[in-house]
Each structure stands twice: as C-alpha cells, then as structure tokens.
Specification:
single chain; eleven-stranded mixed sheet; 33 strands; 20% strand; Alkaline_phosphatase_core_sf; calcium; Arylsulfatase; metal-binding
C-alpha cells in the first residue's frame, strides 16, 4: 500500500480493499487530510518489452466501509408550526415518515434568511464566515457579506466527492454570487464548482414554478416547460432526482451518494398544482382564521411533545397585525384563498419529497441512508405585506394592490402562472407558533427555529424519538462527516482549510438526555441580532418589522435596546428578564461582540432594499455602452446592464424580409416586471411592464421590407441612485419621457409618471433575439417569440445621473435638518420614504396614525425646502409627497 501512494501520511492511513492494488477493480479509502489526494505511485514494473512488464492501475477512491448514503432535504420559508410533524395542520407525511423512522429535533436553528442558511448548511461554517451575511442579491464589499464562499471553506459536496461519493444537487441554488450567474461564469461558485457533480435547479432566491426562466442543468440554461402546459418544477426536480439515483445505482451500486434536495417551496411564488389546491381547499383548514389556527397548532405541539408542557404561547402582535375578528368579509375571503394556496404548496412539495425517499427505498438503500429533512431555511415569510400580494416583484418595488383590486383581478388566478403570489403577514406569524416574529428576524425564534427530522435505520435505533438539544444549521456538515467516518481535510487544492465551526449531532442519536455540545451561537441579520449561550439568549428588540423594507429610520446598531431570556425556564422567549439580570445581560452583550469580531459579522448594516441597488462587481460594472450583434439569451440581472433610475437609448439595426417579420429584439424581465423591444406584425413596439399592475406601450407604423434603424430613447427626470447616500430616496423611481423612433423620425412619445426603483423580475434574464421565460405582455406574444427578420446590431447607451455640487449641498442640508444621516433603507419612492412606514395603518391606534401622518408631512416639507422650489411648486410637491 505504501508503495502505491505518493506521500508517507497517505500511505500510513489509506486502507486498501479487495481486489488487490494494481488490479482494474482495486479500491482505496484515503485519509482525507489532503484533497484531492496525491497521485498514486505506480506499483508495477516497466521493462522495454511489455511482455516482461507488470501493469498497475490506480485504485478507485471509495469511502470507508459502511459509509451511508446522504439525502439532505431543505425546504424554503417555512416556520416551526407549518408541518404536521411539528404540530401544524398541513399534512406532511414524508416528514412524518422520517420522524417516525428516526428522530425529531425541536431546538434546531437557521440564520433567518435563505442564502445565509444555505451557505452555512453546505460549509459547516457560520454564514458570515462563508461570506453570506445577507442574500446574494444584497452583497456588499466586506468579507462577511460579499456572497463568495472562500476557497478555505470546502463544501460537504467537495469533501464527499473527493472521498468517493457521487454528489448531486437539485432545486434552489442561492449560493452563487449574483454577478457570476451568467453563462460566462466563472463557474467555481456554482454547484458543479463546489463539489456537486450534477446540478438541476434554479439560480437565485426564487423562481416561477410554472415557467422558471433561471433553470439550469449543470451550467447550461434549459427551458423544459416550453410547449408543456401544466409542467411544474416541483414535480420535474423530483423526477430528475429519482432518475439520477436510479442511474447511478445501475452504473455504480456500491458507491454511496450525497443528494441535496432543495425545493423552491414554500418561498413565494406559491405555485402548487390544481390537484393539491383542491385537496387542501376541501379540508377547510383555515376558515376560523389565523388566531384560532395558532391556538390549534399550539395545542397540537403539546400533544406531540415538540414543545414543553409548560411552554407559553407568545402574545399576538395586536399593534402590528389585526386579529382575525377585526377583518371584514372581503379580507377574510382573500386571505383564506392566499393561505390555502400556500398550504397546497407545502403539501405538494412534501409529496414530491416523499417520492424521492420512496425511490431510494425501492432500491433497497434506505436502511443505510442518512436522511436529514429540514423544514425551512428560516421562519415563514412575512414579505407578503399586510394584504398579501399577487406579485412579489411589485412588493419589492414598493407597489401593491389593495384587497378590492386583488379580489377583482387576481383571486381566481391565485397560484397560477398569472401570479407571483405571496400571503398576508397574519398567516406567517401564525405558522411560526409558538414563537414570535418571522423570517428575517434572528433575535426571536419565529425567524430561526426550524423543525428537523433525521432518520438512519442502520444508525438510529430510537425510532420516533425527540431531541431537545440546542443545534444550528452549521452542525449538519460535521454530522454527515462523522456518520461517513470522513475527516475534515486540512488542505483542499493546496489551500489550508479554516476549521469547521459546527459540531456533530451524532451524540444525540443514541442519547436523548445528553447535554448539548453546541454551547454558544451568535445570530445577526440586518443588524437585528442575538447571542445564545448555554441556555440563555440575549436579543435585540425588533425595530423593523420584516414586511417593512424601507422608509424607516433606525438608530445606530450599537444603540439597539436588548432583551434577555432564560430558555431553561422559558422555551418560547415569553418573558424578558433583562431588568432582573443586568449583569448577565452585559455579559451576553460582550460575548456577542466577541463572536461578531471572530466570525466576520462587522460592520453591522440595518439596510434592506437599499442594498439591492448598490454597485457590485459584474460583467457590466463600470460600462455605459453595450453592443450585441447576434442572438444571446440568459444573461441574468446581476450581469445585465441596468436601465433603472437612468436615461438610456436603444438603437437597433434590423432588416425586414419581403414576407414581413416579428419577434423579440431585446428584453429584460417578463410578465411580473420588465421591458421588451420587439416587432409585432411588422410594427416596432416598446413595452414597459410595471410589475403587472400597469403597462406603457410605444408603437410605430408598419415597417416596409428592407433595412431600418429603430430606436427607443428615454430621458429620466430624477437625480438617480446617488441620493441614497444622503438618506434621500427621491432620486429613484422617478418618471421620464420615452420616444420611439424609426429611421431617425419620432413615431411615438409617452411620459412615464413613475419607473421601477429597485429591481426587475429576478428569475428572468436579458435576452437578445428571442424571449425566454414569460412575455412582458401576454396580449402581444408568447415565448420564445424568436425574431424572424435579420438582427444586425443592437446598441444600448446608458446615461446615469450625476449629482452636481449644488445637489450635494441641498441633500446634505436636508439630511442635517431632518437629523438624519443616511437612512436605514427604502423601497418606496421618495414621496413615501419620508414616513416611518411601520405597518401601514394595520392595528395602529388613532394617536399613532396621527403621529405618523404628522411625521410624514414634516418629512415632505423638509424635502421640499431642500429643493429650493417656489411656493406653488413647494405646495404641489408636499401634496404629491403626502399621497
């Protein structure tokens, strides 16, 4: 053995298997301290004559004998009280099955947000250590927030692959930097570059489950739904995973696998099939409303033993969310529809997960498969706003129709391909029972407590057991490694590895009462934070409800007030004991700052939506002019040139054949927000889709056969994104005038009152020559709408506004007058950003409403003064601002 391997350490630890080394079927188990392992030394004999020589084949690397298969399942945006396994009313038989065959974990935690939890899950390091302090789309230029998993943090995929596992990833990938997600790569931060040999899934935070414009196989964009009405990604990815496990079993039945299965469910948009909508609707689970639902879940949890019998249900937030009995009939009707679609998505996804589990069982492999099923990567999402939304893209741009409009235009379409839907915040709070708060909030367990079940028939004998030890998502990697008897490598690709920061949970497999080995854990998200230490948790007060993405001024993160909870006697964070234990609170606060320094948490930043528009590296960064001379599809938003909050001009050279032409020239976004420049029955058309609530259209006369130059020129009226540096969001989302030209002549002119301030539909791309995903206007065309003429050249020039010295002086003066530095964040237009949008008027007292209105008026007046307007213009500005 020693002679076969280069390097003495390798030779001392590597374990040969039969047949003997050098034979074609030889295998070895490597020590794993260095990945990839050093080349194996030739152990045969070479003479001049092959008949006198002895061949020697390198041995195939295999894991230690008995290493289990691993099925790692993580769903999306689903709190502790969602699944039936942890007291919920929504049936989740697949999760029930894993819990019945193994263990339920009642004290397991996420990071409260998508990308961060997933980075921690695959690396075994804290999310800031892995570069994911926030989601990829909000990355900033600090080590803890740049959305890059550094090379000293090899993923579980890479470690197991180099130790002889098959590795595959299905579903959501939210761990590739937004600016590296194009077909130009680089691909080292894609799943296939992080150790997963096969990837079938979508890039980014969420996707349209009916028509996912960001779906890829390995690194190639694919569109399998085209021409297949009723196709749904949830079923497609289960089919892909089942096909994969059968394929590798046929080819290599003795080689174990790691499969990460990560559905888009139940992140918005909630897109279940009609079959599941009907099943859930017929169950009438939610007719009594969210307050009684919460009581039901709480009672179920005590019956199941997944919360202590003396646990207290945290209070309903009456000051933020209406109680069910306060709603009118229209609100109840709409909100029940919303939650039934959500619940159908939960049940549908669990059913497809169950199919994957059953496929493994059918192959006779479930007995030695470590199944880790994590319900949710954070608490249930409250990003749907008080009234829910038919279009999540609209919500992130500060626009949302009211209840009456939703009932009229979207009720029957809810959950179909015509909505990008999300539910009301009341349901989100209820589904995080028994805890308070929701996704985005790390200081309270509604945002971080996830129900998890683990089964491994060969390794866990306490079937149906419950485990209450404190654990965190960073503990999954060391658990898998211990089960597989594989060590963390010291070196990967010549780079020394940072220590894994989680601990293995395997000690709990056989001992329900063992004390937790995860003693200390920090939490931080958008400056909301907490520190857990051996049964205590110190938490900052929640100063920004998660459905408020902007327009609220927060104090310096260092000045946040703190709470303290004794979790040994208070499972749900019901009683704040900070006043009774000031010394303990100070000790915990000091510990937080120590952990924050250790794990790259600094600098703290409370902004949310504002991070969406800050400059980041990309293929388009620093450029103002772009040229295309041939069709090209699939350039994601992170690498595509952005025309938001700027003036811009498209110039396109085309040739129309004698028979006429139609088709897409250039588009970005789709049905739920974006623009398209196309030829429709020989006429040039430019359409702005304003998040499916309004469409503006420029149309020219019919083009004659031959060559033409068609242009769209837009002049933006605002000061641009630069105002945000002064806490002023008046520069974004402003209006402008667009002119459509044919051969130098203006043929259509329209004024836009408002433009999109923050983001286009993120699951779709910039396409040239055809349209992938969904149309910007379904009334005009269906995808792919390939251009049938000749596209010679497209030029895009962007003129971003620049602040003048006078602009800067005014903005600085306004900030001083308002007592503000840069505001925490905004997702509204400047007119709305002046007010502290705590929760609309949901649950506010009359006094609070009056105070909000007075605050808003004062903010509007200060903005008007800073603009040096005349008296008439100033009054008009304040009037518009108040609207």
């Amino acid at each position: 053995m020693t002679s076969a391997i280069s390097g003495p350490a390798f030779g001392q630890q590597a374990q040969p298997t039969t047949p003997p080394l050098g034979s074609p079927a030889a295998t070895i188990t490597i020590p794993g301290d260095q990945l990839p392992p050093p080349p194996q030394k030739f152990g045969g004999k070479i003479e001049r004559d092959a008949t006198k020589s002895t061949p020697f084949w390198p041995a195939r690397v295999v894991p230690p004998k008995g290493a289990p298969n691993v099925l790692l399942i993580i769903t999306d945006d689903s709190g502790y009280g969602v699944p039936s396994t942890f007291g919920g009313v929504i049936p989740t038989p697949a999760l029930d099955r894993i819990a019945k065959d193994g263990l339920r974990y009642t004290n397991f935690h996420s990071t409260a947000l998508c990308s961060p939890t997933r980075a921690a899950l695959i690396t075994g390091r804290n999310h800031h250590s892995a570069g994911y302090g926030v989601v990829a789309e909000q990355a900033t230029g600090y080590p803890g927030y740049d959305s890059v998993i550094a090379k000293d943090k090899a993923t579980i995929g890479r470690i197991l692959k180099d130790n002889g596992y098959h590795t595959a990833w299905f579903g959501k990938n939210h761990n590739t930097p937004e600016y590296q997600a194009s077909q130009a790569g680089p691909f080292d931060q894609w799943p296939t570059g992080m150790g997963f040999e096969y990837f079938y899934g979508f890039m980014g935070g969420d996707t349209n489950q009916w028509e996912p414009g960001n779906l890829v196989r390995n690194t190639t964009a694919i569109y399998p739904y085209v021409g297949k009405p009723g196709w749904n990604l949830m079923t497609a990815m289960a089919d892909e995973a089942i096909d994969y496990v059968n394929r590798i079993n046929a080819l290599s039945p003795d080689q174990p696998f790691l499969i990460k299965f990560a559905p888009g469910a139940t992140h918005a948009p909630h897109h279940p099939t009609k079959e599941w909508v009907q099943k859930i609707s017929e169950m009438k689970l939610f007719d009594d409303g969210w307050n009684k639902l919460r009581d039901t879940i709480f009672a179920n949890q005590k019956k199941l033993g997944v919360i202590p019998q003396d646990a207290k249900l945290t209070p309903w937030p009456k000051d933020l969310i209406k109680e069910w009995d306060q709603l009118n009939a229209d609100e109840k009707k709409l909100f029940i529809r919303q939650v039934e679609i959500f619940a159908a998505f939960v049940a549908y996804a669990d059913n497809e997960i169950g199919r994957v589990i059953q496929a493994i069982d059918d192959l006779g492999k479930l007995d030695n498969t470590l199944v880790i099923y994590i319900n949710g990567d954070n608490g249930t999402s409250a990003e749907g706003q008080p009234n829910g939304t038919p279009n999540e893209v609209a919500m992130f741009n500060g626009a949302n129709p009211g209840v009456e409009e939703q009932l009229k235009y979207f009720y029957d379409a809810w959950g179909t391909d015509r909505t990008y839907n999300h539910m009301s915040i009341g349901w989100a709070w209820a589904f995080d029972t028994p805890f308070s708060w929701t996704k985005q909030i790390v200081s309270h367990f509604g945002g971080t407590r996830q129900g998890m079940a683990i089964s491994w028939p060969k390794g866990i004998t306490d079937k149906g057991g419950i485990r209450n030890q404190f654990h965190h998502v960073i503990d999954v990697v060391p658990t898998i490694l211990e089960a597989a008897q594989i060590k963390q490598p010291d070196m990967v690709d010549g780079i020394k590895q940072s220590p894994i920061e989680g601990v293995s949970m395997m000690y709990t497999f056989g001992n329900a009462n063992a004390p937790s080995t995860h003693k200390t854990q920090y939490f931080e998200m958008f400056a909301d934070r907490a520190i857990y230490d051996d049964g205590w948790i110190a938490s900052t007060k929640v100063l920004r409800p998660p459905w408020v993405t902007g327009g609220i001024k927060l104090p310096d993160p260092a000045d946040y007030p703190w709470e303290l909870y004794d979790l040994k006697n208070d499972w749900t964070q019901y009683e704040d004991v900070a006043a009774k234990n000031p010394v303990k609170l100070k000790e915990m606060q000091d510990l937080f700052w120590k952990e924050a320094q250790k794990y790259q948490v600094l600098p703290l930043d409370s902004s949310v939506a504002g991070r969406l528009v800050i400059p980041r590296p990309s293929l388009s960064a620093g450029r103002t002019s772009f040229t295309w001379t041939r069709p090209l599809t699939g350039t994601p938003n992170g690498d595509a040139p952005s025309v938001l909050n700027a003036s811009y001009s498209f110039k396109i050279d085309v040739e129309i054949p004698q028979s006429g032409a139609e088709g897409m020239l250039i588009t970005q976004g789709g049905r739920f927000g974006g623009y398209g420049f196309y030829i429709l029955t020989n006429k040039p058309v430019f359409t702005w889709n304003l998040v499916d609530l309004k469409r503006l259209r420029w149309e020219g006369p019919e083009l004659t056969p031959g060559k033409h130059v068609i242009e769209f020129d837009f002049k933006y009226d605002g000061l641009g994104a630069g105002t945000m540096a002064f806490g002023d969001y008046s520069g974004i989302g402003r209006g402008g005038t667009g002119v459509l030209k044919v051969d130098g002549n203006a043929v259509a002119t329209e004024t836009m009152e408002h433009t999109l301030p923050f983001i286009l539909q993120w699951d779709e791309a910039l396409d040239i020559g055809s349209d992938t995903g969904t149309p910007v206007d379904d009334n005009d065309y269906s995808t792919p709408f390939t251009f049938t003429g000749t596209l010679n050249k497209i030029t895009l020039n962007i003129d971003r506004p620049k602040l003048s010295p006078e602009d800067i002086k005014r903005l600085e003066a306004a900030a001083r007058a308002a007592g503000d530095g840069p505001s925490a964040d905004a997702s509204k237009s400047a007119a709305e950003a002046a007010a502290p949008q705590v929760s609309g008027d949901i649950g506010l007292s009359l006094l609070q409403k009056v105070e909000l209105r007075l605050d808003k008026r004062e903010g509007c007046r200060k903005q008007a003064q800073a603009r040096d307007l005349g008296i008439v213009e100033r009054l008009q500005f304040v009037r518009d601002c108040m609207k």
